[in-house]
Amino acid sequence: MEKYLLELSGISKSFPGVKALDDVSFNLKAGEVHALLGENGAGKSTLMKIISGIYQRDSGSYRLEGREIDELTPKKAQELGIAIIHQELNMCTDLTVAENMFLGRESHARGVIRQREMDRQAAEILKKLKIDIDPRTVVKKLPVSKQQMVEIAKALSTNARILIMDEPTSALTDREIAELFRIVRDLRDHGCAIVYISHRLDELKEITDRVSIFRDGRYVATRNFAETTLDEIIAMMVGREIKEKFPHVPVAKGEKILEVSHLDSGMVKDVSFDLYAGEIIGLSGLMGAGRTELVRAIFGADPIENGTIKLDGEVIHVRHPLDAIEHGIVLGPEDRKKQGLCTELSIRENVGLANLDRICNRWGVVRSGVEKELTRRAIKDLRIKTPSGEQTAKNLSGGNQQKVVLGKWLVRDARVVIFDEPTRGIDVASKVEIYSIMNDLKSRGIGVLFVSSEMPEVMGMSDRILVMCNGRITGNLVSKETTQDEILRCATQYNVQPNVQSATEK
User: Fold this and answer.
1) pLDDT of 384 strictly over 60
2) Three-state secondary-structure class, residue 450
């Protein structure tokens, strides 16, 4: 009989109106990377929170090294050697690296914190992991990738034997991902058991030993990753075969909808491009290239210092987001929790906030029937998994939260829809649904502009690709005629001159 470090059996967990887990099982070996996969709402995060003591199970058994564990709290889980790194990093950014690593476990001598001793211990752990970070550095001065490394170091400072990583690569570059994988392999080789949650299936082959699939709160199967194809994994995740990863739909290009000329905004310098009806433009580039800053300026979230924006041939003045919304330009932002949602409000209230001009009567009173109908449409069209429109946004999975962000805008009569990283943290089936939405908008003559850090996604869904580097457009490429090499070449042209020739003019 095979020996497991962790064994869960018959685990069930319910929330009001939702059965998140239904009689599921999971086991974990020491010295392995075990990927946990499933669509958004499949129960992955709930299971991980049960393992780490954040949630209490309703039923089922929990064994660690063969010993039954009854009540489990986050503190007790930490004492047992279980640590979790959440997708949204949970750090005190005004404290140093060492202070974060030992927060709540500070080294004391006669009631006085021994800062030097904590710095020394933190330096030892960072050195062991081959992470080049000064433990005295204030965390907010570190890039996201380095903060991710600090989270790992913090977990290991508690002598963690089980490390749970939830979408750890979602905000990392390829180089940073390679560094993270080096650390993961090193931890595995030293006997640490790692539970790895990711929607980026292509990266799993680099580190994964076994994979467990969940669907609709139920356990489906566990497989040795090397003996399973990605197509088989996807079919088990969604209960059906997804034949086309990027369902690109050709549509005849219509009239010019959006014209941006010589736009300056912060780091964005002298950007010009056109967007046509029946067209999807992808914005590509390395992290920090200025893609998000550009779409924020177009939406009015950041001030425009110079340049013009024309919509349907008419100059429009976008001083703040309300101006953009009134003209029919809408944005699904990159950070859904801080910028896209009011997480303490319901789905209905979030949809209503974005559509007050439509749901209120002439006296400013909300017409509840209209509000509920818009909410019903958003839930239906985006297949949001929720018992009702009254579900609080914070209680939804990350993917379903993203769908609410999109849904509140898609019920409007928009002319231009901008998506900033719309599929980040979303499972493969939900990605296809969002791609279908983009195609539907395109077919209806709506201009679509989207930012993505996944090059296959940009190439697969775009008609044209605008490549940015150092705040400028350095490439305007026809998707079906270009290559990844050409995109990367444009993405690294730091000395390019402005006013790149349009792909439509070649």
Assistant:
1) yes
2) strand
